[in-house]
Amino acid sequence: MLKRKYLKFCFELIFILIIIVGGLKVLEKGKYSPGLEPDEFAWIFTGYYFDLYFLRFDLFHQDWKDYEAFDQPPLAKYIVGGALFLRGYRIDSLDVKRFWNSVPVDKLPTYFDLVKDKIPNLSVIIHSLRSTIFLFALSSLLIIYIFVRILYGALPAFVSTSLIISNPIHNYYSIRVLADPILLLFFTLFILLCALYLKLQKNIYLVLAFIVSSLAFLTKLNGILLVFMLITIFLIKNKFSISKQDWKFVITGFIAFLLITMLLNPVFLNTGIKAIGKMVEVRLSAFRTFQETFKGVALLSVSERFATATQMIFFSYSPFYNVIKIPVELIMFVVGFYYIFRRRDLLLMTIFAFLVVIPISILPHNTPRYYYWIFPFTHIIAGLSINLFKEMLSRQDVRFLKIQDKCPNLSRFMGKLFSKAERNNSPM
Question: Which long-range contacts (CB under 8 A, 24 or more apart) does 4-13 make?
């Protein structure tokens, strides 16, 4: 028994090391990839807000009322700016970013040569920033493995993680200077805390989940989904019968959410609650502009969004479908979804509703980057199909044992029959 556990531990350790080494290989390739994407360049110059918040601590500067302050929450900007600062660089002005915002969306690659010299030692800076973002992506993978391992076992954890790391979308955007890998880390950490809350029945994990949801909301507006998801899990888990003790933890967690959000995002100190409406308005305006400019990839209806997401996740970027023309991930996902539905798995059903269905239903256009933090959750569900197959096999074993119990003389009869046949066929 101990030997088996030791071998299992060694296997899991080797698998985790493979993930880390494989990720480093992908990062090394990214070091030599050609140039910057327009979105990467834009995120680099938003690092100015790290300078404004942490180095100057000017919480009421006029730039907190600028379009750029409302375009995206500031946490990813702080991380990018902090990484630059540690390398000895500072972004101390929004001038370049304002110029970049004034360029028509379809002309960004043309104007890149005019502004790339604003980044000193471009090759060094880009590799440093991509390495920083890669750490978030790698941490997300490890958390996903731990999450599935704790709740569903080692084999589903191995399968789910393997499906994710084999996806080209994950490998490409995990080493890009974007907010998406940071957001995915907070999403995965959040679901791990929810799993611990449901498994251990300790309300402290509820408070921690509220704190992580605030960090997700400070990364991208999509992070607000975690608050509604957490409340849903809390109410259903307690069957809408909440004790005073439970309410104390919920209120404590929500207060922590509000305090962290307001303290780390000074737009609320400058604009108040209206800042949320302004941020939504700016994001919707950007989506409309992109849809009007790139009409070929615009997604205008909910049905079109789900059809496109299915095509992108399970066909276009599926390594299995591209090789053997069989949508293996889709088949596994359907089986895995049946498994969680049959088990009435509260956590995974809410994950599917809030982190897959809702995000897909509001996708503005068909860009692979938007699926980066969606498809890991479909592939977690796909990995759980293994447990259904294991249950089916165990049922077959149980049925065979029942037959043996009902017919105790069956095995002896079959043994005699085979031995007699061997004697008849043996040479004289």
Answer: 8/154, 11/154, 12/149, 12/154, 12/158
Q: Give one word for 239, left, alpha or beta, with left for phi > 0 and alpha for psi -120 to 50.
A: left
Total residues found in the chain within this entry: 428
Q: Are the CB atoms for 87 and 128 separated by under 8 Å?
A: yes
Res 394 pLDDT > 80: no
Model pLDDT for residues 58-78, shown as the tens digit of each residue: 899 999 988 888 988 999 999
Yes or no: say if 306 and 360 are a contact pair by the CB < 8 Å rule: yes
DSSP code, position 116 = G
Let me know: does 203 contact 234? Beta carbons within 8 Å: no
- Distance, in Å, from the CA atom of 108 to the CA atom of 333, rounded to the nearest integer, reads 38
What are 365's strand-pairing partners? 298
Q: What is the DSSP string of 347-373?
A: HHHHHHIIIIIHHHHT--B--GGGGTT
Q: Percent of the chain at pLDDT above 70?
A: 86
Is the predicted pLDDT of residue 30 greater than 70, yes or no? no
- What pLDDT score was predicted for residue 216? 96
Rounded Cα–Cα distance for residues 96 and 90 (Å): 13
Note if the pTM is more than 0.70.
yes
